[in-house]
Amino acid sequence: MEGGKPMETMAQTLEPLITALTGSITPGQIVAVLAAIVGVGMTFVLMWFGARKLKSIFTSAVMRGKIKI
Question: Which DSSP string corresponds to 21-58?
């Protein structure tokens, strides 16, 4: 068996799958998925900063006796 034969066979085996995937996924779908990921990520980032702000407000209220926003 030659060194290049298994790779050629694998390429021939995967060719229909690659053709089907590239034909069924559109650039619009990729953009929609990326936009959804960014939207969810931004939600978590804003929640993180909000939780930190609430914690600092609560900590300062307990330590100093004042609520500072």
Answer: HHHH--HHHHHHHHHHHHHHHHHHHHHHHHHHHHHHHH
CA distance 24 to 13: 18
54: amino acid identity, one letter: L
- Give the model confidence (pLDDT) of 9-41 as tens digits: 888 888 888 888 888 888 899 999 999 999 999
pTM more than 0.85: no
Q: How far is CA 36 from CA 30, 39, 42, 46, 54, in A?
A: 10, 5, 10, 15, 27
Q: Using DSSP, state whether 59 is helix, strand or coil.
A: helix
Length of the chain: 69
- Band (1; pLDDT cuts 50, 70, 90): very low
Are 57 and 69 within 8 A, CB to CB?
yes
